Amino acid sequence: xxxxxxxxxxxxxxxxxxxxxxxxxxxxxxxxxxxxxxxxxxxxxxxxxxxxxxxxxxxxxxxxxxxxxxxxxxxxxxxxxxxxxxxxxxxxxxxxxxxxxxxxxxxxxxx
Amino acid sequence: xxxxxxxxxxxxxxxxxxxxxxxxxxxxxxxxxxxxxxxxxxxxxxxxxxxxxxxxxxxxxxxxxxxxxxxxxxxxxxxxxxxxxxxxxxxxxxxxxxxxxxxxxxxxxxxxxxxxxxxxxxxxxxxxxxxxxxxxxxxxxxxxxxxxxxxxxxxxxxxxxxxxxxxxxxxxxxxxxxxxxxxxxxxxxxxxxxxxxxxxxxxxxxxxxxxxxxxxxxxxxxxxxxxxxxxxxxxxxxxxxxxxxxxxxxxxxxxxxxxxxxxxxxxxxxxxxxxxxxxxxxxxxxxxxxxx
Lengths: 111, 292
Hints:
Mean pLDDT of chain A: 88
Number of helices of chain B: 6
Shape of chain A: elongated
Strand order of the largest sheet of chain B: 2-4-5-8-6
Order of helices and strands of chain A: HHHHH
Mean pLDDT of chain B: 84
Oligomer: heterodimer
Protein backbone atom coordinates (compact mmCIF):
# COMPACT_ATOMS: atom_id res chain seq x y z
CA UNK A 1 0.00 0.00 0.00
CA UNK A 2 2.90 2.34 0.76
CA UNK A 3 4.23 1.81 -2.74
CA UNK A 4 0.81 2.23 -4.31
CA UNK A 5 0.20 5.46 -2.44
CA UNK A 6 3.66 6.70 -3.51
CA UNK A 7 2.76 5.98 -7.13
CA UNK A 8 -0.59 7.69 -6.66
CA UNK A 9 1.07 10.77 -5.18
CA UNK A 10 3.54 11.13 -8.07
CA UNK A 11 0.84 10.60 -10.68
CA UNK A 12 -1.46 13.07 -8.92
CA UNK A 13 1.17 15.80 -9.06
CA UNK A 14 2.06 15.03 -12.70
CA UNK A 15 -1.60 15.05 -13.75
CA UNK A 16 -2.23 18.19 -11.69
CA UNK A 17 0.67 20.11 -13.24
CA UNK A 18 -0.14 18.93 -16.79
CA UNK A 19 -3.76 19.94 -16.29
CA UNK A 20 -2.84 23.41 -15.01
CA UNK A 21 -0.27 24.07 -17.73
CA UNK A 22 -2.61 22.63 -20.36
CA UNK A 23 -5.51 24.79 -19.23
CA UNK A 24 -3.43 27.97 -19.17
CA UNK A 25 -1.99 27.15 -22.61
CA UNK A 26 -5.45 26.55 -24.02
CA UNK A 27 -6.67 29.84 -22.56
CA UNK A 28 -3.75 31.55 -24.32
CA UNK A 29 -4.47 29.67 -27.52
CA UNK A 30 -8.16 30.53 -27.73
CA UNK A 31 -8.42 33.88 -25.95
CA UNK A 32 -5.39 35.80 -27.17
CA UNK A 33 -5.21 37.34 -30.64
CA UNK A 34 -3.55 35.10 -33.20
CA UNK A 35 0.10 35.77 -33.94
CA UNK A 36 1.10 36.94 -30.49
CA UNK A 37 3.95 35.06 -28.81
CA UNK A 38 1.82 33.76 -25.93
CA UNK A 39 -0.89 32.61 -28.33
CA UNK A 40 1.55 30.57 -30.42
CA UNK A 41 3.05 29.24 -27.20
CA UNK A 42 -0.42 28.02 -26.25
CA UNK A 43 -0.83 26.48 -29.68
CA UNK A 44 2.53 24.71 -29.39
CA UNK A 45 1.53 23.17 -26.08
CA UNK A 46 -1.47 21.22 -27.44
CA UNK A 47 0.40 17.86 -27.53
CA UNK A 48 0.43 18.20 -23.74
CA UNK A 49 -3.20 17.10 -23.75
CA UNK A 50 -2.26 13.74 -25.24
CA UNK A 51 0.24 13.23 -22.42
CA UNK A 52 -2.37 14.35 -19.90
CA UNK A 53 -4.92 11.94 -21.35
CA UNK A 54 -2.71 8.89 -21.09
CA UNK A 55 -1.19 9.68 -17.72
CA UNK A 56 -4.69 10.45 -16.47
CA UNK A 57 -5.81 6.94 -17.41
CA UNK A 58 -2.90 5.44 -15.47
CA UNK A 59 -3.73 7.77 -12.59
CA UNK A 60 -7.35 6.65 -12.57
CA UNK A 61 -6.37 2.97 -12.55
CA UNK A 62 -3.90 3.51 -9.70
CA UNK A 63 -6.50 5.55 -7.81
CA UNK A 64 -8.98 2.73 -8.25
CA UNK A 65 -6.54 0.12 -7.00
CA UNK A 66 -5.79 2.36 -4.03
CA UNK A 67 -9.47 2.79 -3.14
CA UNK A 68 -9.90 -0.96 -3.37
CA UNK A 69 -6.94 -1.61 -1.11
CA UNK A 70 -7.97 1.04 1.39
CA UNK A 71 -11.59 -0.22 1.15
CA UNK A 72 -12.99 3.19 0.38
CA UNK A 73 -16.29 3.65 -1.36
CA UNK A 74 -16.82 4.19 -5.07
CA UNK A 75 -17.84 7.87 -4.59
CA UNK A 76 -14.43 8.44 -3.02
CA UNK A 77 -12.86 6.97 -6.13
CA UNK A 78 -15.07 9.12 -8.36
CA UNK A 79 -13.86 12.20 -6.50
CA UNK A 80 -10.24 11.18 -7.17
CA UNK A 81 -11.09 10.62 -10.82
CA UNK A 82 -12.86 13.96 -11.29
CA UNK A 83 -9.93 15.67 -9.56
CA UNK A 84 -7.85 14.79 -12.61
CA UNK A 85 -10.18 16.81 -14.82
CA UNK A 86 -10.80 20.02 -12.86
CA UNK A 87 -7.69 22.22 -12.74
CA UNK A 88 -6.24 22.59 -9.25
CA UNK A 89 -8.67 20.24 -7.50
CA UNK A 90 -6.24 17.33 -7.53
CA UNK A 91 -3.82 19.04 -5.14
CA UNK A 92 -6.55 19.32 -2.51
CA UNK A 93 -7.77 15.77 -3.16
CA UNK A 94 -4.24 14.42 -2.90
CA UNK A 95 -3.84 15.97 0.56
CA UNK A 96 -7.21 14.60 1.60
CA UNK A 97 -6.21 11.13 0.40
CA UNK A 98 -2.85 11.42 2.15
CA UNK A 99 -4.54 12.38 5.44
CA UNK A 100 -7.08 9.58 5.22
CA UNK A 101 -4.55 6.95 4.26
CA UNK A 102 -1.94 7.88 6.90
CA UNK A 103 -3.24 5.51 9.64
CA UNK A 104 -3.34 2.63 7.20
CA UNK A 105 0.19 3.26 6.09
CA UNK A 106 1.61 3.11 9.61
CA UNK A 107 -0.36 -0.06 10.22
CA UNK A 108 1.25 -1.49 7.12
CA UNK A 109 4.69 -0.53 8.26
CA UNK A 110 4.38 -2.16 11.71
CA UNK A 111 2.97 -5.45 10.44
CA UNK B 1 -13.22 -19.62 6.60
CA UNK B 2 -15.36 -22.24 4.89
CA UNK B 3 -18.54 -20.59 6.16
CA UNK B 4 -17.61 -17.29 4.51
CA UNK B 5 -18.50 -18.34 0.97
CA UNK B 6 -20.76 -16.49 -1.41
CA UNK B 7 -24.45 -17.16 -1.75
CA UNK B 8 -25.52 -19.50 -4.56
CA UNK B 9 -25.06 -18.11 -8.01
CA UNK B 10 -28.83 -17.80 -8.52
CA UNK B 11 -29.13 -15.49 -5.52
CA UNK B 12 -26.21 -13.48 -6.81
CA UNK B 13 -27.82 -12.97 -10.19
CA UNK B 14 -31.13 -12.10 -8.59
CA UNK B 15 -29.18 -9.49 -6.63
CA UNK B 16 -27.74 -7.99 -9.80
CA UNK B 17 -31.26 -7.04 -10.88
CA UNK B 18 -32.37 -5.68 -7.55
CA UNK B 19 -33.58 -2.06 -7.58
CA UNK B 20 -30.82 -0.81 -5.29
CA UNK B 21 -28.33 -1.44 -8.12
CA UNK B 22 -30.40 0.23 -10.84
CA UNK B 23 -28.62 3.51 -10.26
CA UNK B 24 -25.21 1.88 -10.72
CA UNK B 25 -26.40 0.12 -13.88
CA UNK B 26 -27.80 3.33 -15.32
CA UNK B 27 -24.60 5.22 -14.51
CA UNK B 28 -22.53 2.51 -16.18
CA UNK B 29 -24.67 2.53 -19.32
CA UNK B 30 -24.52 6.33 -19.57
CA UNK B 31 -20.78 6.37 -18.97
CA UNK B 32 -19.97 3.59 -21.43
CA UNK B 33 -22.25 5.04 -24.10
CA UNK B 34 -20.64 8.42 -23.62
CA UNK B 35 -17.11 7.00 -23.78
CA UNK B 36 -17.86 4.99 -26.93
CA UNK B 37 -19.48 7.97 -28.67
CA UNK B 38 -16.69 10.36 -27.69
CA UNK B 39 -14.20 7.80 -29.01
CA UNK B 40 -16.09 7.52 -32.29
CA UNK B 41 -16.19 11.32 -32.56
CA UNK B 42 -12.42 11.56 -32.03
CA UNK B 43 -11.80 8.71 -34.46
CA UNK B 44 -13.90 10.38 -37.13
CA UNK B 45 -12.17 13.67 -36.60
CA UNK B 46 -8.78 11.96 -37.01
CA UNK B 47 -9.97 10.50 -40.33
CA UNK B 48 -11.31 13.92 -41.29
CA UNK B 49 -7.91 15.47 -40.58
CA UNK B 50 -6.32 12.99 -42.96
CA UNK B 51 -8.89 13.69 -45.67
CA UNK B 52 -8.47 17.42 -45.19
CA UNK B 53 -4.74 17.12 -45.57
CA UNK B 54 -5.08 15.03 -48.74
CA UNK B 55 -7.51 17.59 -50.18
CA UNK B 56 -5.06 20.32 -49.32
CA UNK B 57 -2.16 18.51 -51.01
CA UNK B 58 -4.24 17.80 -54.11
CA UNK B 59 -4.93 21.51 -54.54
CA UNK B 60 -1.59 22.81 -53.32
CA UNK B 61 0.43 25.30 -55.31
CA UNK B 62 1.74 23.33 -58.33
CA UNK B 63 5.48 22.73 -58.59
CA UNK B 64 7.47 22.58 -61.81
CA UNK B 65 7.44 19.03 -63.11
CA UNK B 66 11.16 19.18 -63.94
CA UNK B 67 11.95 20.13 -60.32
CA UNK B 68 10.44 16.91 -59.01
CA UNK B 69 11.73 14.33 -61.46
CA UNK B 70 14.64 14.11 -63.88
CA UNK B 71 14.51 12.20 -67.20
CA UNK B 72 16.34 9.19 -65.77
CA UNK B 73 15.06 9.34 -62.20
CA UNK B 74 12.95 6.70 -60.50
CA UNK B 75 9.47 7.83 -59.55
CA UNK B 76 9.54 10.18 -56.53
CA UNK B 77 7.00 8.37 -54.35
CA UNK B 78 6.81 11.13 -51.76
CA UNK B 79 5.40 13.37 -54.51
CA UNK B 80 2.65 11.00 -55.60
CA UNK B 81 -0.57 12.78 -56.53
CA UNK B 82 0.94 16.27 -56.04
CA UNK B 83 0.11 18.96 -58.60
CA UNK B 84 2.81 19.74 -61.15
CA UNK B 85 3.07 22.09 -64.09
CA UNK B 86 4.61 20.93 -67.35
CA UNK B 87 5.68 23.25 -70.14
CA UNK B 88 6.56 21.79 -73.53
CA UNK B 89 5.26 20.80 -76.92
CA UNK B 90 2.37 18.43 -77.61
CA UNK B 91 3.29 15.35 -79.63
CA UNK B 92 -0.14 14.69 -81.25
CA UNK B 93 1.05 11.84 -83.49
CA UNK B 94 2.07 9.90 -80.38
CA UNK B 95 -1.45 10.04 -78.85
CA UNK B 96 -2.64 6.80 -77.29
CA UNK B 97 -5.82 5.59 -75.58
CA UNK B 98 -6.17 3.58 -72.42
CA UNK B 99 -9.03 1.08 -72.52
CA UNK B 100 -11.52 0.16 -69.82
CA UNK B 101 -11.68 3.48 -68.00
CA UNK B 102 -14.90 4.08 -66.09
CA UNK B 103 -16.74 7.32 -65.82
CA UNK B 104 -19.90 6.92 -63.77
CA UNK B 105 -21.62 3.89 -65.29
CA UNK B 106 -19.90 4.25 -68.68
CA UNK B 107 -16.72 2.52 -69.75
CA UNK B 108 -14.55 4.45 -72.18
CA UNK B 109 -11.01 5.54 -72.80
CA UNK B 110 -8.42 7.93 -71.49
CA UNK B 111 -7.05 10.18 -74.23
CA UNK B 112 -3.31 10.46 -73.58
CA UNK B 113 -0.85 12.64 -75.46
CA UNK B 114 2.81 13.05 -74.55
CA UNK B 115 4.43 16.43 -74.02
CA UNK B 116 8.03 16.90 -75.03
CA UNK B 117 9.85 18.84 -72.33
CA UNK B 118 12.20 20.96 -74.38
CA UNK B 119 14.78 21.58 -71.67
CA UNK B 120 15.47 17.90 -71.17
CA UNK B 121 14.48 16.40 -74.52
CA UNK B 122 12.42 13.76 -72.71
CA UNK B 123 8.68 13.23 -73.01
CA UNK B 124 5.97 12.67 -70.43
CA UNK B 125 2.50 11.24 -71.09
CA UNK B 126 -0.35 13.51 -70.09
CA UNK B 127 -3.86 12.14 -69.57
CA UNK B 128 -5.93 14.88 -71.22
CA UNK B 129 -9.27 13.37 -70.24
CA UNK B 130 -11.94 10.74 -70.80
CA UNK B 131 -13.73 10.00 -74.07
CA UNK B 132 -16.45 7.37 -74.71
CA UNK B 133 -15.08 6.19 -78.09
CA UNK B 134 -11.71 6.27 -79.78
CA UNK B 135 -13.40 6.98 -83.13
CA UNK B 136 -15.16 10.12 -81.89
CA UNK B 137 -12.28 11.36 -79.76
CA UNK B 138 -11.32 15.00 -80.37
CA UNK B 139 -8.14 15.63 -82.35
CA UNK B 140 -5.02 15.81 -80.26
CA UNK B 141 -3.76 19.33 -79.52
CA UNK B 142 -0.67 20.74 -81.18
CA UNK B 143 1.88 23.36 -80.34
CA UNK B 144 3.18 24.75 -77.07
CA UNK B 145 1.44 23.86 -73.87
CA UNK B 146 1.45 24.68 -70.19
CA UNK B 147 -0.57 22.08 -68.38
CA UNK B 148 -1.12 21.43 -64.69
CA UNK B 149 -1.88 17.94 -63.48
CA UNK B 150 -1.31 15.34 -60.80
CA UNK B 151 1.92 13.38 -60.80
CA UNK B 152 1.28 9.64 -61.12
CA UNK B 153 3.55 6.60 -61.13
CA UNK B 154 3.53 4.34 -64.16
CA UNK B 155 0.80 1.64 -63.99
CA UNK B 156 2.02 -1.88 -63.30
CA UNK B 157 -1.09 -4.04 -63.49
CA UNK B 158 0.64 -6.01 -66.26
CA UNK B 159 -2.40 -6.79 -68.41
CA UNK B 160 -1.30 -8.20 -71.76
CA UNK B 161 -2.00 -5.95 -74.76
CA UNK B 162 -3.87 -8.21 -77.18
CA UNK B 163 -3.62 -5.85 -80.16
CA UNK B 164 -0.08 -4.57 -80.14
CA UNK B 165 -0.29 -2.76 -83.45
CA UNK B 166 -2.90 -0.12 -82.53
CA UNK B 167 -2.68 2.86 -80.23
CA UNK B 168 -5.03 1.44 -77.57
CA UNK B 169 -3.43 0.09 -74.40
CA UNK B 170 -4.86 -1.73 -71.39
CA UNK B 171 -2.84 0.39 -68.91
CA UNK B 172 -0.53 3.37 -68.82
CA UNK B 173 2.69 1.46 -68.28
CA UNK B 174 5.64 3.61 -69.32
CA UNK B 175 7.82 0.56 -69.93
CA UNK B 176 5.27 -0.68 -72.54
CA UNK B 177 5.40 2.68 -74.26
CA UNK B 178 9.17 3.04 -74.54
CA UNK B 179 9.27 0.76 -77.56
CA UNK B 180 6.55 2.84 -79.30
CA UNK B 181 8.39 6.08 -79.40
CA UNK B 182 11.89 7.21 -80.24
CA UNK B 183 11.88 9.71 -77.34
CA UNK B 184 13.22 9.12 -73.89
CA UNK B 185 10.32 8.89 -71.40
CA UNK B 186 9.93 10.01 -67.81
CA UNK B 187 9.04 7.21 -65.38
CA UNK B 188 5.82 9.02 -64.48
CA UNK B 189 2.70 10.32 -66.12
CA UNK B 190 0.44 13.25 -65.35
CA UNK B 191 -3.35 13.46 -65.16
CA UNK B 192 -4.52 16.89 -66.31
CA UNK B 193 -6.31 18.68 -63.48
CA UNK B 194 -9.34 20.87 -64.15
CA UNK B 195 -9.31 24.52 -63.18
CA UNK B 196 -11.42 24.81 -60.04
CA UNK B 197 -12.18 27.98 -58.10
CA UNK B 198 -9.33 29.77 -59.83
CA UNK B 199 -6.87 27.03 -58.90
CA UNK B 200 -4.03 26.79 -60.02
CA UNK B 201 -3.85 30.57 -60.21
CA UNK B 202 -0.06 30.81 -60.39
CA UNK B 203 0.19 28.64 -63.49
CA UNK B 204 -3.04 28.77 -65.44
CA UNK B 205 -3.14 26.17 -68.22
CA UNK B 206 -2.46 27.19 -71.81
CA UNK B 207 -3.59 24.92 -74.66
CA UNK B 208 -4.01 22.06 -72.23
CA UNK B 209 -5.87 19.70 -74.58
CA UNK B 210 -9.01 19.70 -72.43
CA UNK B 211 -11.39 20.39 -75.33
CA UNK B 212 -14.15 17.78 -75.71
CA UNK B 213 -12.76 15.37 -73.15
CA UNK B 214 -14.14 14.86 -69.67
CA UNK B 215 -12.04 15.60 -66.58
CA UNK B 216 -10.44 12.59 -64.95
CA UNK B 217 -9.74 12.32 -61.22
CA UNK B 218 -6.22 11.26 -60.30
CA UNK B 219 -6.09 7.52 -59.57
CA UNK B 220 -3.44 7.91 -56.88
CA UNK B 221 -3.89 10.55 -54.19
CA UNK B 222 -1.13 12.04 -52.06
CA UNK B 223 -0.38 10.29 -48.79
CA UNK B 224 -1.18 12.21 -45.61
CA UNK B 225 1.66 12.44 -43.12
CA UNK B 226 1.77 9.60 -40.62
CA UNK B 227 1.29 11.99 -37.70
CA UNK B 228 -1.80 13.65 -39.18
CA UNK B 229 -4.83 12.94 -37.04
CA UNK B 230 -2.68 10.95 -34.61
CA UNK B 231 -3.67 13.09 -31.65
CA UNK B 232 -7.36 12.49 -32.22
CA UNK B 233 -6.74 8.80 -32.85
CA UNK B 234 -4.96 8.54 -29.49
CA UNK B 235 -7.86 10.35 -27.83
CA UNK B 236 -10.25 7.86 -29.42
CA UNK B 237 -8.30 4.91 -28.02
CA UNK B 238 -8.20 6.62 -24.63
CA UNK B 239 -11.97 7.02 -24.57
CA UNK B 240 -12.54 3.40 -25.46
CA UNK B 241 -10.08 2.18 -22.83
CA UNK B 242 -11.82 4.45 -20.38
CA UNK B 243 -15.16 2.87 -21.29
CA UNK B 244 -13.77 -0.61 -20.67
CA UNK B 245 -12.40 0.56 -17.35
CA UNK B 246 -15.84 1.95 -16.49
CA UNK B 247 -17.33 -1.50 -17.02
CA UNK B 248 -14.69 -2.96 -14.73
CA UNK B 249 -15.41 -0.44 -11.97
CA UNK B 250 -19.14 -1.09 -12.33
CA UNK B 251 -18.54 -4.82 -12.03
CA UNK B 252 -16.40 -4.42 -8.93
CA UNK B 253 -19.06 -2.22 -7.40
CA UNK B 254 -21.84 -4.69 -8.14
CA UNK B 255 -19.82 -7.58 -6.78
CA UNK B 256 -18.79 -5.74 -3.65
CA UNK B 257 -22.39 -4.75 -2.98
CA UNK B 258 -23.59 -8.31 -3.39
CA UNK B 259 -20.92 -9.92 -1.23
CA UNK B 260 -22.39 -12.41 1.24
CA UNK B 261 -23.96 -11.04 4.36
CA UNK B 262 -24.47 -13.24 7.37
CA UNK B 263 -28.22 -12.60 7.38
CA UNK B 264 -28.75 -13.30 3.67
CA UNK B 265 -30.95 -16.23 2.75
CA UNK B 266 -29.45 -19.62 2.00
CA UNK B 267 -25.79 -18.79 2.40
CA UNK B 268 -24.67 -22.34 2.92
CA UNK B 269 -24.02 -22.22 -0.77
CA UNK B 270 -21.17 -23.97 -2.44
CA UNK B 271 -20.50 -21.67 -5.36
CA UNK B 272 -17.38 -19.82 -4.37
CA UNK B 273 -17.62 -16.87 -6.72
CA UNK B 274 -15.62 -14.82 -4.22
CA UNK B 275 -13.01 -17.52 -3.69
CA UNK B 276 -10.36 -15.77 -5.76
CA UNK B 277 -10.30 -12.94 -3.23
CA UNK B 278 -7.60 -13.02 -0.65
CA UNK B 279 -9.03 -14.38 2.59
CA UNK B 280 -7.95 -11.45 4.71
CA UNK B 281 -9.93 -9.05 2.61
CA UNK B 282 -13.09 -11.14 2.67
CA UNK B 283 -12.90 -11.41 6.42
CA UNK B 284 -12.55 -7.68 6.83
CA UNK B 285 -15.42 -7.00 4.48
CA UNK B 286 -17.63 -9.31 6.44
CA UNK B 287 -16.68 -7.65 9.66
CA UNK B 288 -17.41 -4.22 8.27
CA UNK B 289 -20.78 -5.35 7.03
CA UNK B 290 -21.87 -6.96 10.25
CA UNK B 291 -20.95 -3.71 12.01
CA UNK B 292 -23.21 -1.77 9.73
